[in-house]
Design brief:
Elements (H helix, E strand, L loop, with lengths): L8 H26 L7 H15 L1 H12 L3 H94 L3
Length: about 170
Amino acid sequence: MISLSIVKEPFSFFLSFFLSFFLSFFLSFFVSVCGIRVKEHTSIYLSIYLSIYLSISPFIINCLIYFFVSDALFLSLYFFISLYSLSLYLSKSVHNLSIYLSIYLSLFIIYLSIYLSQSVHNLSIYLSQSVHNLSIYLSQSVHNLSIYLSISVCSYLSIYFVCNSLIPT
């Protein structure tokens, strides 16, 4: 924590001198890049005016330094704002994601139910066709077997009766 007693006049004078030098350089560069026609010493006059203003008001600089450095007020404010905006963004993103997921899952379930019902329908048709074919095959087999058995039984009985009639009693 920096107290106000450390930051005195030399610091504000150095800061005003540095700012006036920077502004003089920046203004001359800006004027040369933009091609604005001004008097030769306008940027120097503006930087001198600013340096005088900053040297007259050291209280403002001390307050700014005190608020921005001590207890990390600026940093905590910045983190608070950024975390608050991040939490708003994340809550909105999670809300949108939940909407998208619910829509996607409901469509997926509808598609899956249609697909499964179609598959079950096709499977039932296939199984009923197979059972029908099997029943036709079995009925023909049983019919042929019954014909074969009836012929066999008839021939056996006829042979039995013929043999029985030939044997004297």
